[in-house]
Amino acid sequence: MKSCFSWKQFYAVCAILLFSSSSTLRAEVQLPDGTVIKKVDFEKHLVGLFGRSGCNLGSCHGSFQGKGGFRLSLFGYEAEKDGVTVSRESNGRRIDLQNPDNSLLLIKSMGLTEHAGGRRFSPGSWQHKLIKEWIEQGAPLAKGSGAIKSLEVTPKEIPFNKPGQKINLKAMVQFEDGTSENITSLCEYRTLDDGVAEVDISGTVTSNRAGDTSIIIAYRGTVVPVRAMVPLEVKPGYKYPSVPEVNYIDKIVFSKLKRLNIEPSGLSPDAEFLRRITIDTIGTLPSPNEIRSFVADKSGDKRSKKIDELLKHPMHAALWATKLSDITGNNTDAMENPANLRIKRSQMWHDWLRKRVADNMSYDKIVEGVLCSTSRDGESPEIFLEKTNKLDEELKVGFSTTYAEKPSLDLFWRKQAAVALDQWGEKTAAAFMGVRLECAQCHKHPFDRWTQADYRSYANVFTQLSYGVSPEAKKVIDAENAERKKNATNNNLVNPVKEVYLASASNGKGGARQGLTHPETNLPLAPKALGGPEIKMEAGVDARKKLFEWLKTPDNPYFARSFVNRVWGHYFGVGIVDPLDDFSIANPPSNPQLLDALAKDFVESGYDIRRLERKILETRVYQLTYIPNATNRLDDNNYSHSFIRSMMAEVVVDVLCAATGMVENFGADAPKDARAIEVGASRVSSSISYAFRIFGRPPRTAACDCERSMEPALPQKLYLMADTNLQAKIESQANIIKKILADYKDDRKALEEMFLSTLSRLPNEKEFKHFESYIATGKDRKKAFTDTLWALLNTKEFIFNH
Amino acid sequence: MASRFSSDCEGFYRRDFLRIGAGAGLLGLSLPQILKLEANAAAKNNGVSTSKKADAVIMVWLGGGPATIDMWDLKPDAPEGIRGEFKPISTSAPGISISEYMPKMAKVADKTTIVRSIYHSIPSHGPATVFMTTGNKPTPALQYPAMGSLVSKLVKGEEGVPSYVSFSDIRGGTAGSSGYLGTAYNPFLVEGSAGADGKSKGTLKVRGIQLPTDFTLDELSNRDKLLSGFDTTFREADKSADLIQGFDAFHQQALDILRSDKTRKAFDLSQEKPETRTRYGTDNFGQSALAARRLVESGVRFVTISIGGWDTHSKTFESHSKKLQPTLDNTLSALIADLSDRGMLEKTMVYCAGEFGRTPKVNKNVGRDHWARSMAVVLAGGGFKRGYAHGTTDGQGMAPATDPCLPDDISATIFRNLGIDPKTELPTATGRNVQMFREGTVIDKLLA
């Protein structure tokens, strides 16, 4: 290696140094969007850059363990800490003030040395210049310099004219220090549906096809959504057809479709409507006779009458009791001891909900009965004991109990194992607000407003809640429990009397739980409604009642909205907010006007559930056919046609029973002859548990609607084709085939009957010919119809509601 | 097909619409996904020696909680009322003794690792089973997947063969299930029986992937022809709908699986020599173990077989000496020896455990009650030491004395042998990433 000093090289080095130092003086970096940064600020610019470059994601340095010994705050929410990490930790090796390009921070991120995350940007890029400039200035940190006041992205709604256009977003941030900056190049951009519109790393949005979606812009933990509307391109002179509107719902849905140039499909024929609404409301199929008489009925209001009839049907209440069982977490395995009564307690839970839906109790009253329940409902210990004894006697006999008469659902709070306070926060937020809080247990929610402090102060609303024996009832209940223990034949069968009650004092005293403290200061946190007011704890006053009063205030953003969204999602297969329980800034409603209008109407009606359902079911939107037209084929969130959708697992089981003319036997897990939607238990031990599982019935362990899976899966198809349990129904000597063949000697009539009892429609000519050629191959009549039943149950038309 | 996205704690994720749609294997992710996972696992493990030792696990589940103090960790010097009625016998592994009622296991002890210092704190069947089978202490907040479900998610499967097969629905499906991974990773359940005489053909089959006994492939073809004429109306109405496309793809895959004879062959135990069938034990448990070996040969990655009756609150010594131990001895030793003879033990792990141990103190009904604070489990094959006993309990078997370890540590070690970093993060239904085993760490001393 040559080691001679050369003057030529020396001058060259001096020239570089001179050049660099002059650039230091200029101290300017130009971003791709044209913005010129005069003074690079760590929090404002570098932390934004880390986010945009993916450095502080949970899967990279944002993970709690960090990566490769380097940990950044998740999504840069704690910029101050990141400043210290970058410039001070690791013996300052990350920053080299003498030779900025020698800083580990740059070498690693440009992939010049081993970096599991690879090259995030290239040498010479604006990102390189930005970081280098900051180091050259001496890597200054100004604590809180980047505190964000607001983030504004324009345009708020992207006005595309057609697919194939491009538009640039502009992101402006207002800092707490009074300055504002264009940080378009320092944001992270995502689309919720890349079929409709894509967005690239610099904030350029491209429209792909007609429809609408949201683009989510994130800058250091602050999130803003903008709506991208992409109308279908139409020929000059195109005139949108006029569509009849039944009520305000149609008006809102159709006016949005009109903006998108998407035409709704036509009205569904009677048989299609009847099949859909029967599955949706009572979880089974209409019988062939029902279909015939409905189609033959010439009266103009027959659909309205059918809606009323179905909403009053006992199975309608059973269906909603099942859905509300998911929402409230009716988990058999979490029930209190003794274990042999858990199945029955789950049924009690289901019964309690079912009675209220059947009576059309208003939604707020139902929620009050769940959220604010106690075991005694204000009764004296003696009366409570009397009622408990009666209930326990009923439980010994069977499933039929008087639990549904009890004013409140104390089972919601009764659990075999103590549930941590923060779990109550998560569960109630998910159930009654449609908010997923779990992220905020460990860190600020990255895509919503919730901080750890919000999370904990909300959980503190539930500190008064106790489960055991209240001081007031101690004498009476202890005596009873001693007696019960003495009389039990087996320790495992003791059924002690316990109650859900409110502790008389607070914060760790008098049976109350210790509240959660502030994540950083460890100071006590006052109880607070989620996104609402502080809730003052007073002895003898139920804090949950105050929470409930806040939920019920007409301008509460979640309470009514989350429920109307669930009802809407049930009837259309896709929520206005979807997933149904994910109300968050990063998951905006597809049609906010619709959500607001439904919620407003629901509140004004006094939370009348049946009225809400009727309003929805009588719309033209609900009654559109599933057959798409040329303009709406790809629409999957604007309700331009009835969406093909999966059925709930329980409904799949019931529908298969209806179509085969068989009854499922749930053994000791449910009342005799119960249909699947009438089963309270979250687990059953009979052979049908396999079908429940593969069609997505939830175990109800998590505080999340998402536990119920509505996604198709391969085992479902295998189940329909080959499962022993279902094949036994198809092959049974006592099934529907026997009756059909006895009633109809003519093959065509028999085939019609079988089509009606499965697909709820008549076979067309092609289908009849197909059957004729099949039976002509020498199959005996019974065998041919058994094969036909198998084939019809295996059609997509059968297994999807539409 | 357009993709929709959703957000969560860790960022955005693409909704896995057709989670088990196109791609490899029955429960498969698509091949690129698997390769990516494997690449990630390799990248994450950089430096640490976690090279893959095995590619399959057979879990032998002793439902009810076995009195391991009378099986693998006898206490002959403990006071009466604790030490039990059985004598220890020496084994092929120097210095290791086990119960006199398991002479055949004594012969293969040189191929096993006995862990004597495992403990936990849940003496209740349900949650303890969840802890042991998932490798995560149960929490009301999240249902963790069984190890078999994790294997079917993370270990590349064999085309047309399910990754995770279970011979019993443990605790009505509350254990052994896929938890937050979603329904696609549940076990495929075996139904039918292997026949008690060891000669009969048996009727074992995997529920959901094999046709019922009287349903022939010809019949399936006929019915499928009939179906094709009834399924067009709907498809033509809306060809583009995701559900339609997806279900059509599933239909073809389902036909392939039902026609494939890999799994069916695995269950054809008549292909085994009669003495092999007898060696495993002619009862259902023994034949299940044999079928488990055959399933692993055909490409299944995780098989659970189980035998109950271990909840011996009374007459424990009678049950153990007359039935439980001889049955287990026969079958478990045959399985280990057979795997070894066939050269499969190198690549296959056997894990024999129940949900907890039992009280060292014998109760008034000559039984032992639930005891989670100490228990023993047996491991064999794929990456585990051989002829080794890990850890000890105190003189009365009350608690671990040396090298205490937890169920999740064993799980972590098993996954390390499968070449999967036990700290791998997986997304829950809401998309939140959670570590596969919250707390388990690899027990280096167990590794060969």
What does this structure look like?
The complex is a heterodimer of chains A (802) and B (448). In chain A, 41% of the residues lie in helices and 8% in strands. Chain A is of the alpha+beta class and 802 residues long. In chain A, a hairpin with a 5-residue loop joins strand 1 (29-30) and strand 2. The N and C termini of chain A lie far apart (79 Å). Chain B is an alpha/beta fold and 448 residues long. Chain B has helices spanning 31-44, 103-108, 125-134, 147-154, 217-230, 232-237, 242-259, 262-267, 274-280, 284-298, 316-341, 407-417; strands at residues 5-8, 11-14, 56-62, 88-90, 97-99, 112-118, 164-166, 188-191, 205-206, 302-307, 348-353, 357-358, 370-371, 375-381, 388-390, 392-393, 400-402, 425-427, 433-435. In chain B, the strands form six sheets. Chain B has a nine-stranded mixed sheet. A two-stranded antiparallel sheet of chain B has the order 1-2. In chain B, a hairpin with a 5-residue loop joins strand 18 and strand 19 (433-435). In chain B, helix 10 runs parallel beside helix 11.
Q: Which SSEs are present, and which pair or pack?
A:
The complex is a heterodimer of chains A (about 800) and B (about 450).
Chain A: H1 7-26, E1 29-30, E2 36-37, H2 42-52, H3 79-87, H4 104-109, H5 126-136, E3 148-154, E4 157-159, E5 166-168, E6 170-175, E7 180-182, E8 188-191, E9 197-199, E10 204-207, E11 211-219, E12 222-230, H6 248-259, H7 270-282, H8 288-296, H9 302-311, H10 314-328, H11 342-358, H12 363-371, H13 381-397, H14 421-433, H15 452-459, E13 465-468, H16 474-487, E14 499-502, H17 543-552, H18 559-572, H19 592-604, H20 609-617, H21 620-623, H22 649-660, H23 689-694, H24 714-722, H25 724-731, H26 736-743, H27 747-758, H28 765-775, H29 781-793, H30 796-799
Parallel strand pairs in A: 4-12
Antiparallel strand pairs in A: 1-2, 3-6, 5-10, 6-7, 8-11, 9-10, 11-12, 13-14
Chain B: E1 5-8, E2 11-14, H1 31-44, E3 56-62, E4 88-90, E5 97-99, H2 103-108, E6 112-118, H3 125-134, H4 147-154, E7 164-166, E8 188-191, E9 205-206, H5 217-230, H6 232-237, H7 242-259, H8 262-267, H9 274-280, H10 284-298, E10 302-307, H11 316-341, E11 348-353, E12 357-358, E13 370-371, E14 375-381, E15 388-390, E16 392-393, E17 400-402, H12 407-417, E18 425-427, E19 433-435
Parallel strand pairs in B: 3-10, 3-11, 6-15, 7-8, 7-10
Antiparallel strand pairs in B: 1-2, 4-5, 6-14, 8-9, 11-14, 12-13, 16-17, 18-19
Helix pairs in contact in B: 9-10, 10-11
